[in-house]
């Protein structure tokens, strides 16, 4: 039993509507659409270098998602569950070379003048990005399957932010296009399918107040994973305190002339 399951053991079981409302409230209050870095990014106030920094760091998150999902898969004893979950890995890795979400993200970083070697090696990623993403993978490895699935529930809230991001970035930045942001065109439908599945799973499987609280705590944890990555970007590239060894922005003119 995890600390979350023990700590709130005197509470009552929520009925399905109240449980779902509690989960949606967590997203409404804590999802990363509220972060000031996203407001700046979507509102067109980021410099070219700040957009590069966001894309390079976010690649690390993207690249670890299939590893996280493969970790979750190893914990599923049921083949119907695995069949559903493995679609997540297929979406990111693609069914053949050159397809899939990771490749689409690399087309974005290519278009921003970042070298694939710099991006894929992750050697210039911020410590905040690395620690947050690794904590997410570790959470899914070490906590219960219920908590691991619950931690993906942030995707319930992603279709909205993705459409805001797509329209905001297209309206404000001449250096992106529908083509270079193609990752986001495919994503809302996949996120909807995945979060519908995860929500149905936790509604069915959280049968005690302790389990319901563990689900809520997993969603809060994941909101923190996303939030921390944006805190890191803000400190490094808005306040200008990028830690030694991390990526340094290039001038747009240098990149686009190259
Ligand atoms: O653009 C976004 O704001 C956003 C958010 C999230 C999320 O809420 O976790 C994911 C994604 N994108 C995404 O592209 C993605 O593949 C993804 C996988 C997962 C997950 O937890 O398994 N979250 C997200």
UniProtKB/TrEMBL annotation:
It holds the Pfam family TENA_THI-4. Its EC number is 1.3.3.11. It catalyses: 6-(2-amino-2-carboxyethyl)-7,8-dioxo-1,2,3,4,7,8-hexahydroquinoline-2,4-dicarboxylate + 3 O2 = pyrroloquinoline quinone + 2 H2O2 + 2 H2O + H(+). GO terms for molecular function: pyrroloquinoline-quinone synthase activity. The keyword Oxidoreductase applies. It comes from the Bacteria. Pathway: Cofactor biosynthesis; pyrroloquinoline quinone biosynthesis. Residues 21-231 form the Thiaminase-2/PQQC domain. It is an enzyme of class 1 (oxidoreductase). InterPro entries: Haem_Oase-like_multi-hlx, PqqC, PqqC-like, Thiaminase-2/PQQC. One of its GO terms (biological process) is pyrroloquinoline quinone biosynthetic process. Keywords: Oxidoreductase, PQQ biosynthesis. NCBIfam families: PQQ_syn_pqqC. Ring cyclization and eight-electron oxidation of 3a-(2-amino-2-carboxyethyl)-4,5-dioxo-4,5,6,7,8,9-hexahydroquinoline-7,9-dicarboxylic-acid to PQQ. Belongs to the PqqC family. This is Pyrroloquinoline-quinone synthase. The gene is pqqC.
């Amino acid at each position: 039993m995890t600390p979350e399951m023990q700590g709130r053991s005197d509470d009552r079981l929520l009925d399905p509507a109240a449980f779902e409302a509690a989960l949606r409230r967590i997203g409404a209050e804590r999802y990363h659409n509220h972060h000031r870095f996203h407001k700046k990014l979507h509102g067109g106030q980021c410099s070219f270098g700040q957009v590069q920094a966001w894309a390079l760091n976010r690649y690390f998150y993207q690249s670890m998602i299939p590893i996280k999902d493969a970790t979750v898969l190893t914990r599923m004893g049921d083949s119907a569950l695995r069949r559903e979950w493995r679609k997540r890995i297929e979406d990111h890795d693609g069914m053949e070379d050159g397809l899939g979400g990771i490749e689409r993200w690399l087309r974005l970083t290519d278009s921003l003048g970042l070298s694939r070697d710099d991006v894929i090696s992750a050697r210039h990623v911020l410590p905040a990005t690395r620690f947050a993403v690794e904590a997410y993978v570790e959470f899914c490895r070490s906590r219960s399957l219920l908590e691991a699935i619950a931690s993906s529930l942030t995707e319930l809230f992603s279709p909205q932010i993705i459409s805001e991001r797509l329209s905001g970035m297209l309206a404000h930045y001449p250096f992106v296009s529908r083509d270079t942001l193609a990752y986001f065109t495919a994503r809302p439908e996949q996120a909807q399918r995945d979060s519908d599945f995860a929500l149905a799973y936790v509604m069915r499987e959280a049968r005690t107040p302790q389990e319901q609280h563990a689900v809520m705590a997993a969603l809060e944890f994941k909101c923190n994973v996303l939030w921390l990555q944006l805190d890191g970007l803000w400190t490094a590239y808005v306040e200008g305190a990028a830690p030694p060894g991390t990526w340094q922005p290039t001038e747009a003119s240098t990149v686009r002339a190259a």
